Amino acid sequence: MKSDMPPRTRGGYTSTAPRRRPTGSERRRRVQLREVEPEHPRHDRDETEEVLEGAPGGPIDRCILRSFHKHVAAKIWLGEDRAPLKLVNHGAKLQLWDLDVERSRIYETVQRSGLAPLISCSHRVASRPMLSAFCERWQPETTTFHLPFGEMTITLDDVASILHIPITGSMISFSQPLRVDDANALLVELLGTTDVEASQETEQCRSPSVRLQWLRENFSTITDVSSDDDIDFATRAFLLHLVGCTLFADKSATSVGVVYLELFRDLSMVGSYAWGAACLAFMYRQLTTATRFEVRQLGGYLTLLQAWIYEHFPEMFSSPDMAYIESRPRALRWRPHVIPDSLQSLRERLDRLQISDVCWEPYVDHRAEHPFPDIAWFSGCIKCGLVVEPYHPERVLRQFGHIQTIPPRPFAPPRPDRSILLDQYWERWTDHVLIDHSRGRRCHYSGESVAEYMAWYDRISHRIVQPPHLRSGFTTDARSSLPSHTASTSDSRNARALRLLRHVISGGRQQSGDYFWGALNEAHSILAGSDETSASHSTPSPAPASHSTPSPATRPFFCPPTFVYPPPASVDPPPAAVDPHPSSPVAPPAPAAGPTASTTVYVRSKRKKKT
Question: 250 with 131: CB under 8 angstroms?
């Protein structure tokens, strides 16, 4: 007997009607639902999903760096290489639009906006190898640089000290991307252009943007004798040109988005925005994009990134300006220059970085003019329009002078369409700063961390970027034959000499000649290894395992002038080459008795100094 039930299929009982095949749009929707994944790790995932296979060279545990397999550092470790990034730097273009005395009304409005320091502090030169090497150490999930000894990042305190622009105020928000038609309407309303001029410019840019050159050509000739409306148009054009060359420099390298023009609608309210927080969020996103191996360009305000490197690594990269005074932005403290080293050499130098090579609190002398901002302890999301990035001060406590603990897992930022919630969160920032317990105790010494921090950091990070078998100047056999104490001794000599020379440089021209030449003499002795004689009586400590073998390209960062030391009468002259690592202890020469012991003569450029 036949059953009255409908035929059974894989999905259960269905009707006898013929099956309808899905349309193309339905299939595309299904594919999108399967392929969409969140860009950042979230806390609401099950713990079993957090166990990911480790990457070669680290991290062993990818619960934090979940997207590391797409990172440029992962490709470098596997033998692929990437050339230095092309940099988008508009420091020279700012000088093409000068606000002289004939445009004092425009300059007064710019000064009230809080953006005037950007005119003078932008670097005209940016070092491609140096910025590229640091970009390779940026991790998007934590928004920090992963260095051999731990994490570091650009904080709100860094932005306020380096640029002197406001970091408090209203968040810069846009509800949705700007369309070309809306951009044309904004140009007509806020800049006074015609519909034809506006449409021609956006059509040439092929986006809702305008060229920086177009802004200069059309508005740089307006002076104080022009009408009030023309002065307002020129002021908005100058501010748009200013943020397009600095805070929001994108990879187009020639244009700026018209969407920022909305921020200058009311010129009296321009100073109420948190420009520093928006700049930092934009810089975070540009660094995140540049960590992908296929990306060849880096945008953002590179003066901020470069000055941050100079501040925290002064003994490696910086060239200070002796005429700097603390009332000016810290970006003006440095003379930007191109690092002559190759990108591979800089990778290896960063791989050898130690805690003692970092200036953890560089703004101590700057606090009298620019106190520490409490908003730097804010823990949450910062935003620039539709760009939302997490800000984690708990991951870089050492930069605030506190002991670094194991931080909590980074949080994923909400979607940009929830901008109202983010704005409310930011407006009540005093309720979302790190509490005293989360900040921990003050450091007893710079760069201090808890005992278990490095073991945890070894497991979740990629500390070394350049693979050992690809380091310059060494073969595998030559590296294995080197003594284990070579790197430790060379690094310690360099560090001691650099600490001494740093005191000499900070003293400027006010110090005496005796102190100056005496310090150079001592630094020369340290770098030449002549001070190893006294140290050879004690048993040398073994080198830490984290030290890597130096390459022949490694050289002292300071090469002192040649000094002539007349040997004492009772001691034979030293040999031409001094072994910095003697195999057996050598007793130091006994000082001569009588007045001869204090009659040391320093000879420089055939000039003698008698004592």
Answer: no
